[in-house]
Write a structure and sequence with these properties.
The complex is a heterodimer of chains A (about 500) and B (about 110). By secondary structure, chain A is an alpha/beta fold. Among the domains of chain A are: about 300 residues, Amidase signature (AS) domain (Amidase signature (AS) enzymes, Alpha-Beta Complex); about 35 residues, no CATH class. Chain A is about 40% helix and about 10% strand. In chain A, helix 10 packs across helix 12 and helix 10 packs across helix 13. Chain B has about 110 residues and is mainly alpha-helical. Chain B has a domain of about 55 residues. Chain B starts with a helix and ends in a 7-residue tail after the last strand.
Chain lengths: ~500, ~110
């Protein structure tokens, strides 16, 4: 049995004593050691902590027997705070930041018996769709090393796709879990806004951010969500709606489920191979008894513009905290100058130089755009207007869910593109988020599941979006699809070559 | 500050001058290099040119959505609870004054 089988396999093996948590952990670390030079999925690998944790689980096997993630190696996106472990958000600004506390999701994973094996690479402060905006260099797609893995949770997707982790956590502000999951051929789930606590997630856009799992199977996503979900006194936006056992509804039976398809939205800009895989996936769902419903999302084509107006505005505010005073990088002091005026300037200069050197180009671009749309004279024209259109997008979905249980779209209009191909054209990069951003704007849960490959052998993802707090419906339909079309069993060659 | 805002107010989206970008950078506390000013002038213009489609949408009487409510009770009992100790809170500061319990910044008062 491979080191990183699925959650269910691993847990059962460790429970029954057939394998130890330490054994699984060592094998995973060996795989990381072999694959990391080619893939660069991780910013930090926590070898010693992981092995110590695994031995603790083995030593207290009785105590941990029923833990849902017993001995499961988990990778965390490097924007999730881990006590005593460097958390960089792939930014020079936080290159040596060591949080004094754990994110709530990290606490929950630990209580569920998981073994954290490292922190994954991402676009700086989760801003990007390719991981090329990482200050530490891009991650590479295990299916084609000259291509991007998607982003911003690219390292998390790579780690799961190349079996360097059984589960990874990502964060999704406009598609940052689902798009890399699609481009790397794994499952990615963005829960409903408020379903999972954001405490300890380095904030990008607080009304849109949500943490979720990347996994090999839908079942694993369901198990992980069951662990993560629930109210948290430390996050006032975490929902009190009770969480449930999300694995309970995975029956394979989707007879009568209504799958909405916004056909007119798919007419332009979708790669032919992606469209072919998507249509085949719809047929598969229909063959298992789902009903396909054609519907309209009239404002969805404006979602990109609305999203980037709102997300950058929130980012410009959230990232104001990085000023070289309380944590992170500070630009070297300028020589002291005489006179009050100059000394006041020395402080402002320190702020501005710290931010100029500490942030990369995409982060600065977004701070600039966000600052502009919030500035006097433009707030009403851009920011308020975007919030109003956000309401219209929400209403579109409310109407769609009168006729359908989920809405299906391709996760990304294209498969993985080449590294460097779009770095000089940010607008082109933004447009790739066309199918993912509206779930964030409307606070809806959405999942991406592998649904085939292009003729070049690159993975394609099927996205399902559901009603608020109806993750169970999403997971049931996605699981039924996976049973009928087990694309998730395909493995990248580079991963297969490591025979551990 | 007033003049900065006046300058911003005269900006026509999709065309930014270097001075206008510099004014936004000042609000954002960023000291941009000249190459960045030029680059951002073009790229911000490109995006806002694209985003102008949103301005044409009729939103008469539509309430804005700042965030999607999750129904969580925002009130909680006002009880004293432990929080980070001072040493931990200062632990990542570039220039902490540990004994005084302060974050130090360049001198601002003569």
């Amino acid at each position: 049995m491979r080191a990183t089988a699925t959650v269910r396999d691993l847990r059962d093996q460790i429970r029954s004593g057939r394998r130890s948590a330490v054994e699984v952990c060592r094998e995973t670390l060996t795989r990381i050691e072999r694959l990391e030079p080619s893939l660069h999925a991780f910013n930090s690998v926590t070898t010693d902590l992981a092995l110590a944790r695994a031995s603790e689980l083995d030593a207290q096997r009785d105590r941990w027997r029923d833990a849902p993630l017993l001995g499961v190696p988990i990778a965390l996106k490097d924007n999730l705070c881990t006590r005593g472990v460097r958390t960089t958000a792939s930014s020079r600004m936080l290159e040596s930041f060591v949080p004094p506390y754990n994110a709530t999701v990290v606490e929950r994973l630990c209580q569920a018996g998981a073994v954290v094996i490292g922190k994954t690479n991402c676009d700086e402060f989760a801003m990007g769709s390719s991981t090329e905006n990482s200050a530490f260099g891009p991650s590479r797609n295990p299916w084609a090393l000259d291509r991007i893995p998607g982003g911003s949770s690219g390292g998390s997707a790579v780690a799961v796709a190349a079996r360097m982790a059984t589960v990874a956590l990502g964060s999704d502000t406009g598609g940052s879990i689902r798009q890399p999951a699609a481009l790397c051929g794994v499952v990615g789930l963005k829960p409903t806004y408020g379903r999972v606590s954001r405490y300890g997630l380095l904030a990008f856009a607080s009304s849109l951010d949500q943490i979720g799992p990347l996994t090999r199977t839908v079942y694993d996503a369901a198990v992980t969500l069951t662990v993560l979900a629930g109210a948290d006194p430390a996050d006032a936006t975490s929902a009190s709606t009770p969480a449930s056992d999300y694995t309970a509804g995975l029956t394979g039976d989707i007879r009568g489920a209504r799958v909405g398809v916004p056909s007119s939205l798919l007419e332009n800009g979708v790669e032919p191979d992606v469209l072919r895989a998507f249509r085949a996936a719809l047929e598969t769902l229909a063959s298992r008894g789902a009903t396909l419903v054609d519907l309209e999302l009239p404002h969805a084509r404006h979602a990109i513009a609305v999203y980037y107006l709102i997300a950058t505005a929130e980012a410009s505010s959230n990232l104001a905290r990085y000023d070289g005073v309380r944590y992170g990088f500070r630009a070297a002091d300028r020589p002291a100058q005489a006179g009050r005026h100059e000394q006041t300037d020395a402080l402002r200069t320190m702020y501005a130089q710290t931010r100029e050197i500490g942030f990369g180009p995409e982060v600065k671009r977004r701070i600039m755009l966000g600052t502009y749309v919030l500035s006097a004279g433009y707030y009403d024209a851009y920011y308020l207007k975007a919030q109003q259109v956000r309401t219209l997008i929400l209403r579109d979905y409310d109407r769609a869910f009168e006729r359908a249980d989920v809405v299906a779209m391709p996760t990304s209009p294209t498969a993985a593109f080449k590294i460097g191909e779009r770095v000089d054209d940010p607008l082109q990069m933004y447009l790739a988020d066309v199918f993912t951003v509206s779930a964030n704007l409307a606070g809806l849960p959405a999942i991406s599941v592998p649904c085939g490959f292009t003729t070049e052998g690159l993975p394609v993802g099927l996205q399902l979006t559901g009603r608020r707090f109806h993750e169970a419906t999403l997971l049931r339909i996605a699981d039924a699809y996976e049973r009928e079309a087990p694309w998730h069993t395909e493995e990248p060659r580079i991963s297969k070559e490591v025979r551990i | 500050m007033a003049c900065r805002f006046a300058m911003l107010a005269s900006v026509m989206p999709s065309e930014f001058s270097a001075a206008q970008v510099a004014a936004i950078a000042a609000l954002a506390q960023l000291e941009l290099e000249s190459a960045e000013v030029e680059l951002f002038a073009r790229q911000l213009g490109d995006f806002l040119g694209y985003a102008n489609e949103v301005l044409a949408i009729d939103t008469t009487g539509v309430a804005p959505t700042a965030y999607v409510s999750t129904g969580q009770e925002s009130d909680r009992p006002d009880e004293v609870r432990p929080s980070l100790d001072r040493e931990a809170a200062l632990g990542n500061a570039p220039d902490p004054a540990l004994e005084a319990g302060l974050f130090k910044v360049p001198r601002v008062i003569g």
